[in-house]
Specification:
The complex is a heterodimer of chains A (273) and B (298).
Chain A: H1 2-12, H2 16-47, H3 50-60, H4 65-74, H5 81-97, H6 100-107, H7 111-144, H8 150-154, H9 158-181, H10 184-204, H11 214-218, H12 247-270
Chain B: E1 3-14, E2 17-28, E3 32-36, H1 43-50, E4 58-63, H2 70-73, E5 76-79, H3 91-102, H4 107-115, H5 131-143, E6 149-153, H6 161-176, E7 180-185, H7 188-194, E8 197-202, E9 205-211, H8 212-217, E10 221-226, H9 229-238, E11 242-247, E12 252-256, H10 262-271, E13 276-282, H11 286-296
Parallel strand pairs in B: 3-7, 3-8, 5-6, 6-7
Antiparallel strand pairs in B: 1-2, 1-4, 8-9, 10-12, 10-13, 11-12
The chains are: A mainly alpha (273), B alpha/beta (298).
Chain lengths: 273, 298
């Protein structure tokens, strides 16, 4: 396991494009983490009613709800996690483009090892991303939260685990696309076209089916933010905000992940490379 | 002799084309085994199958008398078709990845870089290399960990004459260390100069397999001429060991029965009082044999 990860890391650690993408991802996150509180402060000053905004800020960044809110924003399907998806698509399609998968196999990896090494880099990126979210949450929470008690700080941290599972599922999806289509450009196109198609399907199909669509399923663990502010229900606004992570959502997401990995393996195994 | 590689009834189709057609081969330890055939004869497909990057439709193969696993491939060094490396990594970083896959100590990297004379460029990115250097780096990678078998697919393809000579010399040097070498080529000259054994493929089928020297010794001929070729031809027809006399512009070419030497012929002519102006034994080149084999199987 460690050996495969070591081999995999050597392929990427001197790859400039890899670091540029990671840097881009970090930059976007930094803008989000430092920019949003700043933006709220700015709006507060402009509006002439700064207290309202301050209350909003305190509620959104309040422990423990902050974990759910930050995980919700970071895992949004059209948001920054796409950068991680692009990294994985580039890493896997490069192996086909440069034919290096062939030299890996000839040198003594088997196809299972090859897939495993890619899954390990996905786990690593998912952990990295979760760690960044965790540190951002700590920072934003401690600078804005009213409550700083240990139970509140660590409460709802299960949402970080939910975030990790969602990211891992999404990156496995990108890996599968890369293995199927092999060419970087085509894989990007398929990825984004499907990202447009699925919301259309979501709109047309029965609501009973839509949660089972793949992109919905792998984004289905963290479904809504949760703050005491928006829990107010009225006849026009009757929405159930998510309080806990549901085991069935997690199972569905993990089920899809297993399917993506299984299909990746079957395709690699059957195909001449 | 111990078999390094046994291939049994291998088949591979691409659509309607039979790239490999019921191919069986045995390669013994220490052989320098040439796989010879025109482009598209199934050489690379066969090598791809025995290196597990191409799935055979049917048939099987075994390395070192064992079933095929990734562990066998760690004992093999191979170049398939073209050098393959991560272009954005330096030579040494590329070799480290391969050494780690093969579970070979990194200390061996310097040795192989010296062998192919690339040590001074070890920190240069692969994409900055000329084609000849890429090819040499591929050989360095194949030599990592002192493999028991080396596989070269068209090793001199795309090289200039100097590069070709260097690679051949390198292969012959390696072969002297007793390593089994499998060399696929469409260049007869290359196989003739480097190989001990040869298999000839055409349309995925094996036409011939055996020692290169056996191919070369098949039915040699003798060319000769004298002041009066008419008379010479008449006398030669009396020589009991002659199979066939044919005329070329200034020469007579004759095929002799097996075991007859040029000395016997010369002695016969002297006894008949004939003085020749030219007498030479004509070794059939592998090329002639090869073309003959191919046309026989048209």
């Amino acid at each position: 396991m460690i050996r495969l990860l070591k081999i995999e890391l050597q392929k990427h650690l001197s790859y400039r494009a890899f670091w540029l993408m990671i840097l881009f991802y970090a930059l976007l996150l930094a803008i989000m983490i430092f920019g949003i509180p700043g933006l709220i402060d700015y709006l507060a000053e402009k509006s002439g009613e700064p207290s309202k905004f301050r209350i909003f800020k305190a509620i959104v960044f309040n422990f423990p709800d902050i974990w759910q809110n930050i995980a919700f924003v970071a895992s949004a399907r059209f948001f920054i996690k796409i950068v991680l998806g692009i990294i994985i698509i580039i890493l896997i399609t490069n192996e086909f483009h440069f034919l290096t998968i062939r030299s890996n196999i000839i040198s003594g990896l088997d196809k299972k090892d090859f897939l495993l090494s890619k899954l390990e880099i996905i786990v690593l990126l998912s952990l990295f991303s979760t760690l960044v979210i965790f540190l951002s949450g700590l920072y934003l929470g401690f600078t804005n939260s009213v409550s700083k008690s240990i139970t509140d700080v660590f409460g709802k941290m299960i949402f970080l685990l939910g975030y990790f599972i969602e990211i891992f599922a999404y990156l496995s999806f990108c890996l599968l696309l890369g293995i199927i289509f092999r060419k970087t450009g085509i894989t990007f196109i398929v990825h984004f076209v499907y990202y447009i198609i699925e919301p259309i399907l979501d709109f047309k199909l029965n609501d009973k089916i839509t949660p089972f669509l793949p992109i919905n399923a792998i984004n289905g663990i963290i479904t809504s933010p949760n703050t005491s502010l928006i829990k107010v229900k009225s006849p026009d606004f009757n929405y159930d905000f998510q309080e806990v992570i549901s085991l069935s959502d997690v199972s569905l997401c993990l089920g899809y992940t297993a399917l993506f990995i299984f299909l990746s393996y079957i395709i690699l195994k059957r195909r001449d490379i | 002799m111990e078999n390094i590689l046994s291939i049994n009834n291998l088949n591979k189709k691409y659509g309607k084309i039979r790239a490999v057609n019921d191919l069986s081969l045995e390669i013994a330890k220490g052989n320098i085994f040439g796989i010879l055939g025109p482009n598209g004869s199934g050489k690379t497909t066969t090598l791809g199958i025995i290196l597990s990057v191409i799935n055979a439709d049917s048939g099987n193969f075994s390395w070192f008398g064992e079933p095929n696993t990734k562990y066998n491939r760690k004992r093999i060094g191979a170049i398939l078709e073209q050098p393959i490396f991560y272009p954005y990594l330096s030579a040494i970083k590329n070799l480290r990845i391969i050494a780690d896959i093969k579970e070979v100590d990194h200390a061996d990297i310097d040795r192989v870089l010296h062998t192919v004379d690339l040590y001074h460029r070890k920190d240069s990115k692969y994409r900055t290399f000329s084609y000849g250097m890429k090819q040499r780096l591929a050989i360095a990678a194949a030599l990592l960990g002192k493999p028991e078998v080396l596989i070269f697919d068209e090793p001199t393809n795309g090289l200039d004459p100097k590069g070709i000579a260097e690679i051949r010399e390198l292969i012959i040097t390696i072969a002297k260390e007793g390593i089994t070498i499998i060399l696929a080529s469409h260049l007869l000259d290359e196989v003739q100069k480097t190989c001990s054994h040869v298999a000839v493929l055409k349309n995925g089928q094996k036409l011939f397999a055996g020692k290169v020297s056996d191919v070369l010794n098949m039915k040699d001929s003798v060319e000769l001429s004298s002041r009066d070729n008419e008379k010479l031809a008449n006398v030669l027809n009396e020589f009991p060991q002659v199979l066939e006399v044919s005329r070329e512009t200034e020469l007579l070419v004759l095929k002799l029965k097996e075991g007859t030497s040029v000395f016997d012929l010369s002695q016969f002519l002297v006894s008949k009082g004939i003085v020749v102006t030219h007498l030479a034994s004509r070794k059939k080149s592998l090329e002639d044999q090869f073309l003959e084999l191919l046309t026989q199987n048209e």
